[in-house]
Amino acid sequence: MQDTYNLIIVGAGMAGLCAAAEAAAQGASVLVLEKEKDFGGSSLLSGRYMAFAGTDLQKQEGIDDKSEFLVEDMLAVGEGKNEIELVEAYGEHQFETYEWLVSTGVQFHKVQAVSGHSVPRGHTITPQQAITALYEAAAASGTVEFRTGAVVKRLRKDENERVSQVVFEHAGKTKTASAENAVLLTSGGFSKSEELLENFAPQLTGAIRIGGKGNVGDGIKLASEQGAWLRDFPYLKGTYGFHPTADGPRKSQALAFYKGAIIINKFAERFVNESISYKLIGTEALLQPERITYQIWDQPIMDQGVPGDALYDFEKLLALGLIEKAETLEELAEIIQVPAEKLKTTVKEYNRDIQNGGDQKYGRTTLTHHFGTPTPIHNAPFYAMRTTVAMLATYAGVSVDKSARVLNAFNEPIEGLYAAGEIAGGFHGAGYMTGSSLGKAAIFGRIAVQAALKKQAVL
Predict the structure, then answer these.
(1) Mean pLDDT (whole number) for 123-129
(2) The 111-112 sheet, strands edge to edge
(3) Which UniProt keywords apply (predicted)?
């Protein structure tokens, strides 16, 4: 192993591997340090969606979409708390990144309507296939070295106050490597750190923890020591849609509510507009009595399941015994132990409102964001899935600019230090739009490399 490289990348998930592949294409010498034995991190646990607009898959489905619409949706879902320049950078580079991913060997299967989008914009991947393709693209260059089981301990600045050295442990030895252009942190968030979650997100105490096991916030600590400003922690939210058993080896998840299901608590009462972001639904779900909630739907909604999909494979969850089925609402209520008469009343009132043009209680008029039309729930058999909130990704962290340069408390770039992916704050704002996490990882992973190799900001 050499001691000096153009770039040192800390973390080998979607952001780190996109950065490595981009750097390889430019002929840069790169060292990628991954503390786990395998690549992928939390990217492998994602919902498999990437948010892109104007793609060939959309055109095949007759979907008219543009970057401007994507940006508008992101800002709306983020409630205006996003850094506009970051979202606009996403919009500017999203289509070229989609085409680049395809050219690199990442396979996109279909496009679906997902949370926060005005049109179907969720481009599905198989995470393991995508991670493998990106790794192979980087490794084939011969200019990228990968080290797994490499735990980064500290970053160091040189005499010019530029972050240029990485101290890490590998194979039982402490080593130091230097970066001529930049150190790029793509090390994820802290969804597996009880210490940081307790300090930064005590409101998520009841959420199950299912993030990548290496996501303990070490990258955020590394950047903080170098003066990085931290942001967006007040907006941390869990993800609604997981079965309570998802904290085990199987990450069972269903978003039947985006196909038309309603969500109830243990008293068989609705408590939220089911079309809003599953992050916002998660906040409300954690406030329910004993944090017990269920999704309720009927056969027409069941028929909209998508075999093999991480979020919509209802038949698989039924076969696993995670979805309950009954011929009547009374029988379903007995199975899930909620008041039968109240469940019937809740469904009856919802159906009446939907048939009359809109939900009177919580204002639901669509399936997700501005897309889709709800339908009554009245065709047996009926289904229910107990559903909870999971801490999967944290979406808060170090402050960055549109070139992915890490910023200090005075909004000034810290020389030589970049960050991309889940570790970077400022992008999502107060909400979260499905597919934007993997999307920003890919986009800003590449942007960081382009800026670092030019030794200037991307204009």
Answers:
(1) 95
(2) 49-51, 122-124, 111-112
(3) FAD, Flavoprotein, Oxidoreductase
